[in-house]
Amino acid sequence: MRQGATPQQVEGVVAAVEARGLRAHAIPGAQRTAIGITGNKGAVEMPVFESLPGVLEVIRVSHAYKLVSREVKPDDTVVDVGGVPVGGRTLVLVAGPCAVESREQTLTIARRVKAAGAHLLRGGAFKPRTSPYAFQGLGEKGLEILAEARAETGLPVITEAVDADGVDLVERYADAIQIGARNMQNFSLLKRAGQAKKPVVLKRGMSATLEEFLLSAEYILAEGNYAVILCERGVRTFSDFSRNTLDLSVVPAVKALSHLPILVDPSHGTGRRDKVAPLSRAAAAVGADGVMVEVHHDPDRALSDGPQSITPEMFEGLVRELRQIAPVLGRRI
Amino acid sequence: MRQGATPQQVEGVVAAVEARGLRAHAIPGAQRTAIGITGNKGAVEMPVFESLPGVLEVIRVSHAYKLVSREVKPDDTVVDVGGVPVGGRTLVLVAGPCAVESREQTLTIARRVKAAGAHLLRGGAFKPRTSPYAFQGLGEKGLEILAEARAETGLPVITEAVDADGVDLVERYADAIQIGARNMQNFSLLKRAGQAKKPVVLKRGMSATLEEFLLSAEYILAEGNYAVILCERGVRTFSDFSRNTLDLSVVPAVKALSHLPILVDPSHGTGRRDKVAPLSRAAAAVGADGVMVEVHHDPDRALSDGPQSITPEMFEGLVRELRQIAPVLGRRI
Amino acid sequence: MRQGATPQQVEGVVAAVEARGLRAHAIPGAQRTAIGITGNKGAVEMPVFESLPGVLEVIRVSHAYKLVSREVKPDDTVVDVGGVPVGGRTLVLVAGPCAVESREQTLTIARRVKAAGAHLLRGGAFKPRTSPYAFQGLGEKGLEILAEARAETGLPVITEAVDADGVDLVERYADAIQIGARNMQNFSLLKRAGQAKKPVVLKRGMSATLEEFLLSAEYILAEGNYAVILCERGVRTFSDFSRNTLDLSVVPAVKALSHLPILVDPSHGTGRRDKVAPLSRAAAAVGADGVMVEVHHDPDRALSDGPQSITPEMFEGLVRELRQIAPVLGRRI
Amino acid sequence: MRQGATPQQVEGVVAAVEARGLRAHAIPGAQRTAIGITGNKGAVEMPVFESLPGVLEVIRVSHAYKLVSREVKPDDTVVDVGGVPVGGRTLVLVAGPCAVESREQTLTIARRVKAAGAHLLRGGAFKPRTSPYAFQGLGEKGLEILAEARAETGLPVITEAVDADGVDLVERYADAIQIGARNMQNFSLLKRAGQAKKPVVLKRGMSATLEEFLLSAEYILAEGNYAVILCERGVRTFSDFSRNTLDLSVVPAVKALSHLPILVDPSHGTGRRDKVAPLSRAAAAVGADGVMVEVHHDPDRALSDGPQSITPEMFEGLVRELRQIAPVLGRRI
Questions:
Q1: Which of A266, A310, A259 has the alpha carbon at shortest distance from A290?
Q2: pLDDT on residue A41
């Protein structure tokens, strides 16, 4: 739509699209509103729409993905997570334990990362574990603890859902719903997240191409939820020194193709405590919209992923370094 | 348990295990019944169980997986799929279209593969597709068509479920429930499949290690469903000439570590029609318990995966070749 | 050239090509002689050549490789290694120790594999080792031992050269020069091998695409040595159960694009003794022109690669199985 | 050796080592001199050496690599390349064309990168090319041009050698010898480089583990050349958006295990111009000792690797950004 197109004009185009049996997605941007059209089997009658009031141009999108594409929406998307804007001028710091283990553990860590400058709290109540015999998370009890940590610290909460029932619960308690790497192509879960009223953090699958990653995001947007944040967390290679290979070049690649914000998770990306700070600095320098790190006050006794958690002290040092790097890319913390 | 242990003795051990808050899994074999114990946090009181009537020995399993392990159950597991034994002396041929597209298409193909010697019919009613805009399958209508094809040809049916609701439906209509590669670590789905009354075909994830593959199978067995068939379908590499890299060395590796049967799917494994027959022959020669191939009578008009489907004529030729290779490994078709 | 083109006509075309500053490669086939033209920067004046006597057609080759391509030479190339044809109706068995360790060790193994049915003897005198402190081979002394084993058993010898000086020596003592996986893109070595008077066995690099593999072969042909045998030996992946992932789908892919023969080496491909026989069977079934296996009479004391060497007894059992599989593909042993 | 050990004491230990048929490598550090011992088959008589004058302790090294290990030499190695220290407080900028194409091209680029702040000039005279028909470099003529560019700009020169003859030439004309990724396990070339009088820049192979990378460096040190600089340039994965996947986590991993400096080459690492600056910033932030980038004043007409070359203007902007990031790690440009 043109700059200054009225809400009535936007509604008019949406109605015209839907009258043809197609689906219209009005996506407001900083300057202009974009209207994505999906559901067409063949070519769309472009001239019909071009002549409607308020329409600037009709762009045919060549990729398999549409709504996530910069062609459809040139402006960066800024996603609001409980009042914290992700994708704008702030380099967003998401920190917290891998798993919610207890009230005391979570509150201790939440206070420490808040004091150090974190913007958002992370922590798992539902843990997808490779082994059926590993700790699977506290479930709803964990969500209650996270909500209590938010009430005390003011930090909005991001936490993972692993199935449709979990999305119901996470939607109720948390500020953003995380879809984990192993579920990146769990399309039923993506569709359910697309119907949620909360933003979604979508992690890249362990061997996902960029095309697949963006199409999984497209599943969420296609259901009407445009508040999607991507997250790189490392891909699987032959590496003998890190659990995964953090693929930082995906950040400029996403920025070129999509309007969605992207975080980097160096904790899962490297699997090793001593690499978290260096790779977090690198993530900030490459242009990520934020970093998501696991922090534990007693990592050697953590119930999951202890070896990749950093201490609150290490997190404080990291924040000091990131404050110096952020301005190079026109950001602040 | 010893050879010749009575059902009462087996029940006695199960009761003793459960009395300690643990979970007992009685797994009958050709010679002896094994009882897997799960749910223990620390060490199990081995002497207690060793002294029970009928007990041969108590083996501590060092791997993260237990129930799928050959240490727990040395005999090969033979899974019954609608009367067809998978994992025994028969080299099992599973054939059919990638997706159920129509009644006529499915029945045409089912008749052709039956005539050529197939033992089981495959075909997708729920299709997990990378793009939200691609054909997603006929759903329950597709399951009805598959059931009709079974009624006419006598071929038991394997078809994929992508979520819990799908498992309900597939369990009702089909003879085995397939879990696709993208859902190999969808642990909620694995647990649901573990409660199903039908066998499960579990495909290896695109970048799954053998440890992860077996642990995903363990999720299903740990819920009580011991009828699991593994399936190799190619892993993701840098290959520039095949969609995936079919990893046939996983077959002897599985045979060494696990009692579960394993199929090979060269259609997804290669993504190219002209490689399906050579890799099917190789799968039989390496020792797989069967091959699963996509057959379409008009592959160039298939709604999905046409380029990797072979024609019924090519399938007939393949069966002739497999009949010659199977005896080298002491099998027949 | 047309079928029945005379040697004079072939020479006439070669002269015409060279008169234009280009390079002509006359490659005789079973039916017809092909003349590859290289050295052209832009388009070749096709009509000039088409009108020469004996010329059937001029084909523009679109791939970066030319001389290795089936477009240039539709017939399969059969390479003569000391009298053994590689690439024809025989499934060629290449067997021997990883490294030549001593006269006695090599002769013992050579006699055993000869008796079991092997056609060619393999064994390394120059060993490229990851560590500078590992056994690097006996050098020229090892070549002498191999020559003695050939004299006694009649088995022609394939052995590796790792640099230009090594090619000089191997060319003198052996029947074929092996270029190892680590040197697949050592272009100086490829050029030197291209000037050799003996056939070359070129192993696929650990992460080589098919395009790169064929272009490395092209380096050898472009220097005038058309007797090149390709060899798949596994690619590097994330596998947790085999040293490399044997990529058998490369065999039909090579057969479609190139006229060169291809062997499979399941010893390096899997790195594990118990997978050598299954993967050798699979290699024969997929259509490879032969298999190359490491055999050692005392593998646990081998100076290199003991864990992947099979015993002479295992080799005899393997030959029995391969004799049954070969006829399925119209081959014999 | 102890701090303050005299040259005579060092020589005494070296003599004692050599008297036992072993090889001694005296490696001077900022604080102390380390003496690496290689050539031992079994255990070394440690007490003999511990009692020699000036000896602080004898450390048994558990890795396959020894001389490259931080256990042998705790201090960072600073390599002098024509007067430029690599591995110290300076973030080293290596810039220049992929290939030397002409005198004018190379001098134009050398002047521009010198003005922008580069410390070292890179440029290939011998180009290892995947295809035998691609431009293979100007050879010695290219080396003369590089020497002229050094004479005019004062920038020391790094350039690749692809075989032993090439090392002779590069050693004569340039200030450091580059071993390319494809030759990382060309052990004959590594040994020759180990006898050179100039520093060596060793690029990581396309699918090399860290263990293999360090062992290849060990080959060079074991021949007596301790001036080795490592270089990460991306590994091969399934990525669909970059030529290689730049593996920045190797930088902290190398720093933990080895005393050698490490550069990052984001041009080869990404293969795309628009990713060079972001990944160069990330390389500086992760802790690399320098970055090596391809710069071309007319990249669209470059004879090789044009798509990954940045313009001199882009390089100037990058240097401005790196000047801001370097101090975060206690470095300057």
A1: A266
A2: 61
